[in-house]
Amino acid sequence: MNIKGFLIDLDGVLTKDENFTPIEGAVEFIDYLNRNRIPYLIATSNSRFPPEEIIRRMRNNGFNLSSEKIITPLVVAPEVMKKEGVDTVFVIGSPQLIEFMEGKGFSVKQTPEVDSVLVGLDKGLNFEKLKIGTTALKVHGAKLYALNKNIISKDDDGLLFPGVGTVAKMFATACQCNEDFKHFGKMGPEYNKIAFEKLGIDNPGQICMISDDLFVDLKGYKSLGLKTVFVTTGKYTLGDAEGADFVDIIVDNLTQLIGRVNIIDSEN
Question: Which of 49, 196, 217, 261 sits at 20 to 30 Å (Cα–Cα) from 226?
Answer without folding.
Answer: 49
